[in-house]
Amino acid sequence: MGKSQNSFLRAPEPVKTASSGFSGLIEKLDYLSASEVAQVRLAYRFADEAHLGQLRSSGEPYITHPLAVASQCAEWKLDTQALMAALLHDAIEDCGVTKVELIEKFGSPVAELVDGLTKLDKLSFNTREENQAESFRKMLLAMARDVRVILIKLADRTHNMRTMGDMPRAKWSRIAQETLDIYSPIAHRLGLNQTYRELQDLAFRHLLPWRYAVLTKAVTKARSRRRDLLQKVKKEMEHAFGTHGMPIRIAGREKSLYSIYRKMQDKHLSFAQVTDVYGFRVLVPETTDCYTALGILHQLYKPVPGRFKDHIAIAKVNGYQSLHTTLVGPSGISVEFQMRTESMHLVAESGVAAHWLYKVNKPEDGSNDRLGTQWLQSLLDIQDETRDAAEFWENVKVDLFPDAVYVFTPKSQIMALPRGATVVDFAYAIHSNVGDRTLAARINGEQVPLRTELKNGDVVEVITASVAAPNPAWLSFVRTGRARSKIRHHLKTMQLTESAELGSKLLAQALRAEGIEVLPDAQSPSPIWDKLLRFTGSKTRQELLTDIGLGKRIANIVAKRLVLLLADAGQRPDALLLTRERFSAANANGMGTITLDGSENASVKFAACCRPVPGDPIVGYLGRGEGLSVHTAICPLAQKLQHKDGERFMGVEWADEPARSFEADLAVTVVNGRGVMAKVASVLALAESDIVHIEMGEDKGHDAKDLHFVIAVRDRAHLETVLAKLQRSAVVMRAARSKKAS
């Protein structure tokens, strides 16, 4: 039996400060060769010289900070390049050293690591939040390309948190909150449990110092009170395992202060009601021994029903593996036990850093090579669809969940997703093409809505179709950053494509009004398009047409310029076409008329202020950057815009056969009574109209109540039929189209 440890049986040691000399770091580099140590020494001398004269808030030489960061990286057994980057990580930001200079002295890999850790110039951004979002994106993308970036950054943040007592108190709250929101979840997501716990507790200590002090005192009291009890449990365990001849190592586990605080807050418990403050880890030689140890413990103490978890068969998303069980020990006290092997313990405490620890201890073992890489790769996927820093950071934060659900594909492949993830998240986790083509889904063989949240053990089957496409409504329920960014990217691409088609149609109509039958061919090399693009400042023909479709450019102005360019090339306007088009467009503000059937999707919006339906007289407003908005001709907002911005209006008309139904607003006053809503809904259903939305208005006295409906109708004639049927209903006192839409 190995030597036992009990971390909760002694008071916590104070955090040690970094040695100002290099010798403390050298002692930890016994895993490097002499030539590699010499390279680290070279980086130290350069950093020492660069930071000469700079002091920390504590008054110590600044070089003590890079040394402390490198020392933490050495404990993770990171390689020479990472240690050199740790020593140089503030050189670009604080000392005016350039990236080129670092490349010349230490090579490109070290310089790239340092650059990934360097914040962006604050003067480049309008707000602190904008700068922070862009800096985080830069760091996370560098981390996705090379995980050593975030390991150095977490070591840097850990030392800054340990020494935050020397900083001005005004900075405590912001830095501590940032640590809880960003760095601690990243550490957890990458399996760095020890760093995760320390960052949480240090942030808690500086964010809520009074609560931290009270809880520290309570834990210290409880520790001394339960010392004898825990010693008894330990002795009984040692005897039980000794009887079975199993070699084990017992380690004490104490719940972190912040974890205790969060549990008390979330579950509204007092400290006395938190039962899992203390526990034991049983470290065994082989994986099968974990299950044997579980059996021995269950014979020793009674298990608490529902408190067993097998994280060995189904590892957590960050690579964590252990068996967990809660047992009722002496005096009725519940104690948690965790069974794991030494290699599992290494991963549990060090996460992705265990990759380097494995290389040092077992060079031939490549079992941990992919640890954490799935999430890191997803960062690059999100970046591919998201160019806005704030949106990128919002998507990434969604993925920083400590909890997960584990589900299966029909072929029994296990997948881990954040708690609350839906069928659509699952589809995008498989592949973006599966997500984009999702039509329906089955969970455990039963058809379910796409917004259904997944539960542990679900077998999920996604049904796809080539005609299916992402729905904007999906954004309201997806939980993973990957799914969110993929959906947004698809919708943006679709909107730009449709806007370009609308722009092409608008430009062709404006050109016809100038006497030119068709747009010049853009397929063959043409100096006319090159000259037109130089005039408009657009990079491509597609961009120009998209800008016209979005209302950023007026089709008439572009058409007039195009006519001049065609005239220079010898093509004159057709006089007959010119006369006919100008006559027919006389009442459409000279911009031609667009025919609408409802299939235009994102490029044309039917205004919610008046909700036009086929049969209503309509006008089109080409808003700046908003595409074409369609209003009823008598809409107050449209009339106001016409007075202020008349040149942006154009003629629009309904197609003979609309391709879909349209929404209309109804105001209905009903008799107050039981079952009235069901009766009104029944009338609407018989009239072949779907209810899109219902709002309850104010009571009009004791006997009447106002209801507001948004319904789907085919056209104005269908709407009038619906109103007539409502007015004939015994429970309806009044039914009319809302005034704003009439």
Shape: extended
What portion of residues is helical?
40-55%
- Overall residue-averaged pLDDT value: 78
- Identify the quaternary structure here: single chain
Uncertain residue ranges: 1-20, 120-127, 362-373, 586-591
| Spatial separation of the terminal alpha carbons | 86 Å
Q: How many beta-strand elements?
A: 20
Overall structural class, as computed from helix and strand content, comes to: alpha+beta
Question: What's the number of helices?
Answer: 29
Query: In percent, how much strand structure appears in the residues?
Result: 15-25%
Radius of gyration, whole Å: 34 Å
Give the biggest sheet: 6 strands, mixed
What report would you give on this structure?
This protein is an alpha+beta fold. Among the domains are: 81 residues, Hypothetical protein af1432 (Orthogonal Bundle), CATH 1.10.3210.10; 146 residues, Beta Polymerase, domain 2; 165 residues, no CATH class; 80 residues, ACT domain (Alpha-Beta Plaits, 2-Layer Sandwich), CATH 3.30.70.260. Helix content is 48%, strand content 16%. A hairpin with a 3-residue loop joins strand 18 and strand 19. Helix 10 packs antiparallel against helix 11 and helix 20 packs across helix 22.
Give a nutshell description of this structure:
This protein is of the alpha+beta class.
